[in-house]
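User: Reviewer 2 asked us to show a designed sequence for the structure in our supplementary figure. I'm pasting the structure tokens here. Could you produce the per-position amino acids so we can include them in the response letter?
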């Protein structure tokens, strides 16, 4: 068994588990201030799976600070509305986004493109693949991980950025439960289950799909009796598609067990079920799926839950998803940056500050996700534009930025909440900790 210690400075050495958006984002932030870190991922390589994802004014100032905003715009299209239809393609309503209020257009792009951009910012020697974490422990003032290949690594801080079924969280919760320190609710099953299949078709003809000619894109969401399906155009004449169904608690238990076993063959039954479904923009779901490489079609089971326990000792958890993961990473990095040393007391104080800033935000996000899900599945009426704009303004008023980089000036007509993190000059911080 080999043991590696990455520590080479009198600052906290951080082990990041998971090379998704959250883990890579945290690595990028540490890279700018020379905090030693290493990222571990269980996969053998990063595969370009996923559908479209979007970002907006609640994260774009961060990428302006990092000099990556224009890079994102190169593979993005403006996203300004969602149109909702019934299964007979009768329009039920729309949700419009006024970029003048928010200061930025919502941008839509392939998730894989965004992930590739983040990955390029990480030096190749700071990420290791085929590293499935099987256990974690704290010993002699260090946090230690053991991987399935019997290798072990140690550092000062362990960050679980490994998704909804986090191995780090499971290990942390196991230790806390054995000590009687874990809230009972944290052991309950996740609360909302969605089974989804998604992908991005190869470039299509603008003559067949006229929406590809538009400067901005819009999402078409169709509500069926037991499922929803949607499509949206992306840059370079590509169309992203997805379909989903809400599942019962009993079905969730079965799907949760199978989540890691799915591959191209297991998608076939679900594909046949949606093959003939019509799209408001023309064509059928089957046509888009047929033009998507089978190995790049994702079938995923998603659940949501607001856990009470986010940290203990030298271990901390950060969220999954898009904007939520990015904001978690920025706030956590800010709190670590403002630590005076790497003692257990300083680490605990930083984690508590992070939790105080982010936990209630995550709870609000889950609530919004439920409300949005009801609209998208026809369980709730679409509110008037004025009501929806106020709803989005509330979301976008929270725009955390990086504490050690120059702040980006406020854009848009809406209000923006003040920054919460203590700001210090990087040079002063380095002089203090080196």
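Assistant: Here is a per-position design you can include in the supplement:
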């Amino acid at each position: 068994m080999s043991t590696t210690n990455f520590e080479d400075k009198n600052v906290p050495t951080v082990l990041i588990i998971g090379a998704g958006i959250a883990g890579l984002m945290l690595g990028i932030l540490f890279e700018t201030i020379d905090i030693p870190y290493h990222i571990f991922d269980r996969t053998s390589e990063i595969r370009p799976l996923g559908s479209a994802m979007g970002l907006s004014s609640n994260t774009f100032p961060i990428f302006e600070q990092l000099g990556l905003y224009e890079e994102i715009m190169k593979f993005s299209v403006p996203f300004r509305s969602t149109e909702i239809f019934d299964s007979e393609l009768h329009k039920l309503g729309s949700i419009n986004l006024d970029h003048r209020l928010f200061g930025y257009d919502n941008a839509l792009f392939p998730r894989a493109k965004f992930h590739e951009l983040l990955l390029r910012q990480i030096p190749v020697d700071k990420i290791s693949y085929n590293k499935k974490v099987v256990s974690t422990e704290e010993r002699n003032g260090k946090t230690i991980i053991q991987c399935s290949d019997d290798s072990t690594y140690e550092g000062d801080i362990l960050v679980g950025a490994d998704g909804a079924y986090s191995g780090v969280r499971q290990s942390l919760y196991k230790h806390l439960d054995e000590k009687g320190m874990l809230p009972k609710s944290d052991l309950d099953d996740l609360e909302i289950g969605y089974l989804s299949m998604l992908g991005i078709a190869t470039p299509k003809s603008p003559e067949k799909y006229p929406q590809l000619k538009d400067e901005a894109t819009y999402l078409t969401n169709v509500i069926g009796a037991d499922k929803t399906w949607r499509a949206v155009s992306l840059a370079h004449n590509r169309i992203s598609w997805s379909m989903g169904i809400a599942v019962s608690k009993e079905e969730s238990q079965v799907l949760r067990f199978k989540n890691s076993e799915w591959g191209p063959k297991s998608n076939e039954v679900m594909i046949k079920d949606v093959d003939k479904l019509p799209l408001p923009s023309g064509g059928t779901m089957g046509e888009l799926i047929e033009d998507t490489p089978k190995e790049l079609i994702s079938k995923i089971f998603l659940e949501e839950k607001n856990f009470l326990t986010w940290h203990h000792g030298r271990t901390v958890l950060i969220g999954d998803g898009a904007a939520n993961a990015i904001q978690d990473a920025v706030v956590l990095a800010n709190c670590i940056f403002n630590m005076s040393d790497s003692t257990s007391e300083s680490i605990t104080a930083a984690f508590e500050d992070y939790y105080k800033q982010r936990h209630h935000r995550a709870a609000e996000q889950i609530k919004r996700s439920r409300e949005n899900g009801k609209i998208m599945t026809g369980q709730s009426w679409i509110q008037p534009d004025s009501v929806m704009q106020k709803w989005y303004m509330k979301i976008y008023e929270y725009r955390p930025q990086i504490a050690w980089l120059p702040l980006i000036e406020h854009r848009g007509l809406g209000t923006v909440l003040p920054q919460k993190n203590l700001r210090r000059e990087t040079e002063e911080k380095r002089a203090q900790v080196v």
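For the response letter, you might also mention the following. The chain is about 30% helix and 25% strand. Confidence is low (pLDDT under 50) at residues 1-9, 427-434.
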